[in-house]
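Sharing a chain and its predicted structure for anyone who wants a worked example. Both blocks are below, sequence first, tokens second.
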Amino acid sequence: MLKHLFYALLFLAPALNSAGVKISEPIILTKPIEKKPNLYEAMKLETFGLAHQVLELALQGHKKLAADGKLENPNILTIVDFSQSSRNKRMYVLDLESQTMVHHSLVAHGRNTGDEFAKNFSNIDGSWQSSLGFYVTRGTNMGASVGFSLIVEGLEKGFNDNAQRRQIIVHGAEYATENFIQRTGRLGRSFGCPAVPPENIRPIVNTIQNGTCLFIYFPDDTYLNSSNILNNPV
């Protein structure tokens, strides 16, 4: 009898304190960890029509250029998404530091790149087509025909490195306006330059000039599979 009682007490021992009162397992209360929104969510870019994949590609290239010392101002990233209709505002100027969208604008593609939708791209002088890939912005210019504008340098050999020879610049144009869309059903087209509404040119240029990243996107397999910037990440 005493032997059985001893084994019973031995079995219950881990559940008893010194006073002989049963102790429950401790309950640890923790505050749920709130998921920090990523850049795409923080800027609500989906509501402005920019696909998450396009932002990720732009950020990948931007990171590479910043690491290589190509950018004087890495806080600003401009994305032109030519996969969208020209009726859409498809230029996005992002402040990565404050996680805000500074400008959201209409932007024209080249005359021989397509009508409402972009289709064809070229790096050849006289093609009147837009060029894909990553650029770095330079200083401003006052053109005889287009007025105040921004010089850009194409960084991708075979895709946009003829940009300065072709005089590809960011400039304002009356054909890149809502009024033009209302009259024709689509935006007008340039000789290959990313042209924006005249009222937007100075605010945009003042934000993105002097060493920021510009990415002109289209889901072109040749470009995506051959880009040295996208295929050689940091």
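Comments welcome. The radius of gyration is 28 Å.
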